[in-house]
């Protein structure tokens, strides 16, 4: 897989002499390249038809162990974002430290899972997870907790003991020697035998002495010593001005003052960083990515830590979550990227985009996009349209996500796709349901016509529950309205509400919302009502039915359909007889009523 930093991967069998077929990373998070691979089935290959090699991005998301890491850390991330009433001062710092420790516990749990798998394939993951926990722990100490001098040193010692198993043995060897200060490993194992109170007292005494020397002008004749005193009392302008001079005094100061920590952390931290790197990797080792990252952390260079981690680690999980946490510590506000988004949002977007290429982890990515205020919605809209809609259950899940976020266009697109799939599978009820949800009048009309055609062929409707409960949705299109009302006519007829059924049937015919091909069917439906013992249609209604029949005959005579179809001719004759008989009965009944 390609690393998030964009390092190139060697594509097997690439032919550099020929023009290659290549595509950049897309929503599917894959790259396609032309290769010279032979056919695995032993078939001959034409020269003009190259083989294709697929390179997937962010392969870590397919690792079982790392999937667990992604899932569990998601809850921690969301919980941190939902804490709107952020506390201030020490309580806020303690809260963020707890969140950091939760992240580290998830990393360590994933490390244990990788160890239990006892597979060679997992060794690289164990190494990566171990490095991630090491770096995160140091960042927690240096940036998030940011303890004062004495506590900071003790935290750093605990960090070394936790991650370097030989520290305790080394410390014992130093303390057992006749002259511990002259032991070769003295500086590789600092001791915290002094209490915090002792350290604070020594520091305070030293600090007051420096302030007194500056006030009295003791070192007025020695600019170098005067500058050092300014540095040790925390004069930032002196620190920046004499940064090179400070380097020459590092070892001298630590030797004279043992572990007294000055206000300016830069002095002690750089020396501690040097000794820690020698301890981890040997004094003569060339800088490795881990060295660079840890040194950047000791030098309090947050952005360099994030940059180097992005290059060295194989996925975006670490930098995305660490940067988000540091942002909540108000340590990244001043760093915006040149193309608009800040560093936190950029890294979260990259991480979430990778999750979207996985068949189930994409659900986690939605929450990450939700908490990217500038570009999160645009990314979500872009990616969610490209999720394969394999099942109706998955489609409904995606639809709920879109509806909750008022993503109207995406809702319509998903519904249209699912409606088309249902039509292809001849599932008209499902297709109609999706088209109504999409508010697609044209497609609803198309499916309604399919229902009417099916009725003409079979004499009955399928999916009656859906049609019976269309409600206000039937107003989406005229044809859907006709379908719903026509089904209502059948229901009335079945309940022997003949007068109401006759009135509705006549309304459907005169409103002209039925397809022309269905007019004869409506007239045929009137025949049983015309033959009832009780007069159902009034004389006026019968005249309207007669007019409808003449309109149908006029339309069909142009197509010469009646002359070619004996069944249709028989229907017309029966309708004429029925209408004439009903008209006579209606006139007699209405005349009798008037006389009485």
Strand content: under 5%
Annotation field: number of helices: 27
Q: How does the overall form come out from the CA principal axes?
A: rod-shaped
Spatial extent as radius of gyration: 40 Å
- How many E strands? 2
- From the N-terminal CA to the C-terminal CA, the straight-line distance is 95 Å
Major sheet attributes: 2 strands, antiparallel
Helix/strand-derived category reads mainly alpha
In the sheet with the most strands, the strands line up as 1-2
List SSEs in N-to-C order.
EEHHHHHHHHHHHHHHHHHHHHHHHHHHH
Runs in which pLDDT lies below 50 for 5 or more consecutive residues are 1-8, 24-28, 38-49, 249-285
Average residue-wise pLDDT: 77
Characterization of the model:
By secondary structure, the protein is mainly α. Among the domains are: 20-57, no CATH class; 388-495, no CATH class; 522-595. Helix content is 65%, strand content 2%. The chain is built from 27 helices and two strands. The protein has helices at residues 64-82, 89-117, 123-145, 149-163, 167-176, 196-216, 223-232, 236-241, 243-257, 265-281, 289-298, 302-312, 317-328, 343-355, 362-370, 376-384, 392-404, 408-424, 428-437, 441-458, 464-468, 478-494, 498-510, 519-530, 539-558, 561-564, 566-595; strands spanning 30-35, 51-56. It has a two-stranded antiparallel ribbon with strand order 1-2. The longest helix is centred in the C-terminal third of the chain and has 30 residues, at 566-595. The N and C termini lie far apart (95 Å). The model is unreliable at 1-8, 24-28, 38-49 and 249-285 (pLDDT under 50).
């Amino acid at each position: 897989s390609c690393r998030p930093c964009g390092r190139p991967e060697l594509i097997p069998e690439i032919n550099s002499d020929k023009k290659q077929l290549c595509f950049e990373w897309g929503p599917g998070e894959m790259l396609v390249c032309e290769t010279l691979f032979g056919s695995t089935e032993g078939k001959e290959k034409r020269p003009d038809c190259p083989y294709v090699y697929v390179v997937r991005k962010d392969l870590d998301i397919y690792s079982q162990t790392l999937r667990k890491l992604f899932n569990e850390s998601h809850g921690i991330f969301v919980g941190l974002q939902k804490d709107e009433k952020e506390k201030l001062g020490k309580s806020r710092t303690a809260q963020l430290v707890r969140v950091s420790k939760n992240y580290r516990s998830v990393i360590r749990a994933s490390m244990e899972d990788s160890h239990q798998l006892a597979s060679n394939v997992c060794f690289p993951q164990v190494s990566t997870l171990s490095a991630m926990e090491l770096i995160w722990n140091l960042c927690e100490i240096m940036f998030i907790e940011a303890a004062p001098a004495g506590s900071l040193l003790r935290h750093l010692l605990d960090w070394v003991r936790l991650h370097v198993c030989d520290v305790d043995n080394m410390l014992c060897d130093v303390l057992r020697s006749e002259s511990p200060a002259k032991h070769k490993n003295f500086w590789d194992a600092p001791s915290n035998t002094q209490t915090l109170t002792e350290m604070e007292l020594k520091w305070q005494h030293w600090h007051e002495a420096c302030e007194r020397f500056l006030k009295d002008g003791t070192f007025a004749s020695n600019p170098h010593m005067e500058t050092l005193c300014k540095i040790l009392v925390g004069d930032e302008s002196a620190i920046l001005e004499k940064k090179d001079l400070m380097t020459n005094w590092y070892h001298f100061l630590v030797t004279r003052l043992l572990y007294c920590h000055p206000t300016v952390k830069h002095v002690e931290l750089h020396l501690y960083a040097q000794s820690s790197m020698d301890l981890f990797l040997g004094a003569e080792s060339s800088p490795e990515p881990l060295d660079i990252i840890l040194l950047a952390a000791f030098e309090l260079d947050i952005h360099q830590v994030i940059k180097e981690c992005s290059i060295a680690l194989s996925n975006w999980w670490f930098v995305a979550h660490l940067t988000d946490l540091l942002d909540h510590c108000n340590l990244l506000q001043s760093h915006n990227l040149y193309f608009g988004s800040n560093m936190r949002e950029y890294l979260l977007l990259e991480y979430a985009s990778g999750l979207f290429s996985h068949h189930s982890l994409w659900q986690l990515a939605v929450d990450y996009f939700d908490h990217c205020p500038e570009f999160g919605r645009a990314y979500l809209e872009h990616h969610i349209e490209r999720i394969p809609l394999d099942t109706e259950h998955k489609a409904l899940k995606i639809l709920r996500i879109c509806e909750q976020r008022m993503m109207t266009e995406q809702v319509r697109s998903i519904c249209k796709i699912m409606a088309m799939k249902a039509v292809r599978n001849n599932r008209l009820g499902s297709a109609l349901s999706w088209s109504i949800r999409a508010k697609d009048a044209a497609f609803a009309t198309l499916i309604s016509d399919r229902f009417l055609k099916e009725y003409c062929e079979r004499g009955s409707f399928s999916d009656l529950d859906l049609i019976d409960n269309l409600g206000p949705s039937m107003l989406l299109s005229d044809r859907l309205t006709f379908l719903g009302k026509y089904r209502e006519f059948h229901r009335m007829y079945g309940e022997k509400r003949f007068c109401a059924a006759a009135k509705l049937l006549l309304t459907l015919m005169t409103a002209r919302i039925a397809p022309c091909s269905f007019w004869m069917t409506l007239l045929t439906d009137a025949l049983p009502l015309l033959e009832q013992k009780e007069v159902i249609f009034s004389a006026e209604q019968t005249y309207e039915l007669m007019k409808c029949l003449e309109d149908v005959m006029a339309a069909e005579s142009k197509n010469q359909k009646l002359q070619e179809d004996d069944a249709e001719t028989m229907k017309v004759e029966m309708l004429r007889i029925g209408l004439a008989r009903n008209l006579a009965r209606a006139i007699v009944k209405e005349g009798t009523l008037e006389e009485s």
